Amino acid sequence: MKFKTADQTYFEARKAFSAKQGPRELWLAIDHWPLYCGIANLGRFLAVSDLFRSTLDVPGDVAEFGSWRGANLLLIAKLLRIFDPHCSKQVHCFDSFQGLTEFSSEDGPAQQRTGEYSGVPEELLDVIELYEMQGEIEIHHGLVEETLPEFVDMRKEATFSFVYCDTDLYSSTQLILNKLHPRLSLGGLFVFDEWNDEAYPGEGVAVNEFLADHGNEYDIQHIRHTRQPTMAIRKTHA
Q: What is the share, in percent, of the chain residues with pLDDT greater than 90?
């Protein structure tokens, strides 16, 4: 991995820093988050913000697949409240909160990571309640392979402007693209967290297969100044 050595050095220094500073009140740290946030994570937040803001004028809801603890989900929901508070767009969260579970041969070494990135739905619900976002965020709790087909069948009118794909694995990424390609509005984005990542090859394989069939309908975008997300595709033709 390109940044493995630098990351390990940083993680060790961060752990030592935390031990030196000692425990502190939660909001004292959170309200001063730029002081503590790593540069790579800050770059990620800025990249997601830029991508999301580029779709504000595109009609359709917003979805994240694979929300883990919910940081990216709440970032997107808060951005929507800030930049378009009176819109009718809904933010959808699709996650089993059980971590990585549904593997295919295309996933290669990721198959050794069973259960990683399991979330805490109770904490996520508490945060949503804290910010009074119950009417803005809809959680679809369960395997994407089950909840997304059910959603598409029941909500035939639903369209999307921004879809963040972070399930890491082949079968779920393939399903997301095939099910939501007809529902993605012109100008809308599919954003991928682990495209071209050797640790999670399945996501990249699914994206590349999709583009082999639909590449002429999308503009492929490299995302600068961040490690993740790794790539986005913007729908340019119906």
A: 97
